[in-house]
Write a structure and sequence with these properties.
- By secondary structure, the chain is an alpha/beta fold.
- The protein has a single domain, classed as 3-Layer(aba) Sandwich (Rossmann fold).
- It has 11 helices and 6 strands.
- It has a 6-stranded parallel β-sheet, with helices on both faces.
- Helix 8 (about 160-170) packs across helix 9.
- It starts with a strand and ends with a helix.
């Protein structure tokens, strides 16, 4: 059986990652493909479902179950007393569980996987925290090393100015008070997302890296249509 296609979308908070993944989900559904959106599944369920009946899986990191749920609701919340290293280790553990239970089996079955965030996020964000691991140490954590060996076929990095991101985050109905959602922090993060180091790391793992500009005047619809266009071109080359 032909291996499936793994597309990962990563970037600054509020840069359009979720919009892009949801756009891909809806595009796949419009093609009469059966789609499982784990982001929706986890609203009413825990654990990992049987994926055999689906053609397309959409997911997100951290997950909304097990360690991922703890990360979202406790570890990265404002006022958290968890150490940066403990947070990094939790992210690595959560993603390895996701890969083993969903991502790898789905790809082995020839499915398409569209994912919001991943090990890229840890490599970018976590070394910037006080008393954290270096980016080399982050990459070597067991779960992260495992996932880097199963790198996405296509990595789309959403590019947007940090000031625009902060404006978007302030308009969100749900304010989760994540410790990462601060302007000065986002400026540092933006530099790493645009760095040759990150691009070269994933290219060395076999990923095609594409930058997607979501700055104004680009609209939500532009982000969706441009993402779909990138994925279509990837599929045509296979």
């Amino acid at each position: 059986m032909k291996r499936g296609l793994f597309v990962k979308i990563d970037g600054l908070d509020g840069s359009g990652k979720g919009v892009a993944v949801t756009g891909l989900r809806n595009w796949a559904a419009s093609k009469s493909l059966k789609v499982l959106d784990l982001r929706e599944y986890w609203k009413d369920n825990s654990g990992f479902p049987n994926i055999d009946q689906y053609d397309v899986i959409t997911s997100a990191e951290p997950t909304f179950t097990g360690v991922g749920k703890k990360i979202r609701e406790e570890m990265v919340a404002k006022g958290s007393n968890h150490t940066a290293k403990a947070i990094a280790e939790a992210f690595a553990e959560d993603r390895k569980t996701l890969y083993k239970n969903v991502i790898i089996p789905a790809l082995q079955q020839g499915k398409m996987v569209f994912q919001e965030r991943g090990v890229v996020t840890s490599l970018v964000y976590q070394p910037l925290q006080e008393d954290s691991y270096s980016k080399e140490e982050i990459a070597q954590l067991e779960g992260n090393a495992f996932c880097l060996e199963h790198a996405p076929d296509l990595l789309i990095l959403t590019v947007v100015e940090p000031e625009v991101v902060m404006q978007r985050l302030e308009k969100r109905e749900k304010q989760d008070e994540a410790i990462f959602e601060r302007l000065e922090f986002q400026k540092k993060v933006s530099e790493i997302y645009r760095s040759s180091w990150l691009k070269e790391l994933f290219e060395a793992k076999g990923s095609k890296v594409h930058y997607l500009d979501t700055n104004p005047p680009n609209t939500v619809d532009d982000t969706i249509q441009n993402t779909i266009s990138i994925v279509k071109k990837m599929l045509q080359k296979e």
